[in-house]
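hey so u asked for the seq, here:
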Amino acid sequence: MHLYIDYPSWITPEVIPGLPVRWYALMYLAAFGLTYILVMKQVKDQKLGYTHDDISSLFLWAIIGLMLGARLFGTVFYDPTGFYLRNPWLIFWPFKDGVFVGFQGMSYHGGLVGAVVGGLLYCRKHQISFLRMADLFTAAIPLGYTFGRIGNFINGELWGRVTTQPWGIVFPYAQRFSTRHAWVRDTAEAVGMPYESGELVNLPRHPSQLYEAALEGVLLWALLWFVCKNRAKYPGFLLSVYLIGYGTARFIAEYFREPDADMGFVIALGREHEPAALFHSLLNISMGQLLSFGMIAAGILLIFIFRKRAVMSGIMPD
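ran it, structure tokens below
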């Protein structure tokens, strides 16, 4: 009896094998569509007076900023080789050896920065309150993350660290480890995985994509939508809570998600003789955690700034 789950063979990245339509792309479309619906519901319920054109146009500017920021951060912060810094004209070139490969290497944190910049530019151009718009969007956006992370799972990418838990999944494209290492043999034996001496084995991993779908998606959305939305007393409150909430959820999830193999830990204060595929210290910090900590700090700071601004403008009492 083995204590792990084989990645389902019937799951494929393509909607229809042989055609260039992927579930991941459809998941993004579903996320954008759901976010738009939830934003418009708030506009209607709160009688804010924004039109479909207002929201659609802002949405477009934010998405363009998101794509640009995600790609820039992905190539600058997550490429330790410096290839894109030496060849910046390839940052937005989705081809390799003449074959379309899409934009591989996208950063959530860069997407957030890009979306904020795009939204700010649109709101300033049309004299719309950015903070009020940001509150509308941040109350809706997290539920869309659920679809994005499910898309990662379907792609069999961004797998978690090695685990002996019975819900660990053997992802087909995950890195394999040699049974010459004692920890590999111990893990394989613990989950009932047969192996030959000296061979490479594909060990079970945490389905960290699904953990993130639950933490960054469903849980954060429920917190913002059902708890915080009705308690927001000044513009920017939901944006601040979103930054703190997402940063916290992502920071926790990163302990289960394997860091990029070519980066490892940006802060390694724990034991370093074991591979990054194992969790062995809370003191080993990934790039994702470092950026998430920045989000948490920014969210806390903004709560005080926005509250003070609201008091000074008479929106709320001191």
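The chain has a mean pLDDT of 88. The chain has ten helices and eight strands.
lmk if thats what u needed
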